[in-house]
Amino acid sequence: MQSLSDVVDYAVEEYMNYIENYEYEVPFHTPLWDFTWAVRSCYSPDADPGRVFEAVEPEVRRRGSWSMFRDPNGYTLTREEAYLEFLYNWKKMRWAFGPGPFELAVKRAAANPLSVEIGHNGPPMPLYERFVSIAGWLQVLMEDAPIMLPCLKMGDLLDVSPMTITRMRKRAISEGLLSKTAEHSYSQGRATEFRFEIGQFPILAEAKEAGSSTPTSQDASAVP
Question: Could you tell me which of 108, 73, 72 has the C-alpha nearest to residue 204?
Answer without folding.
Answer: 108
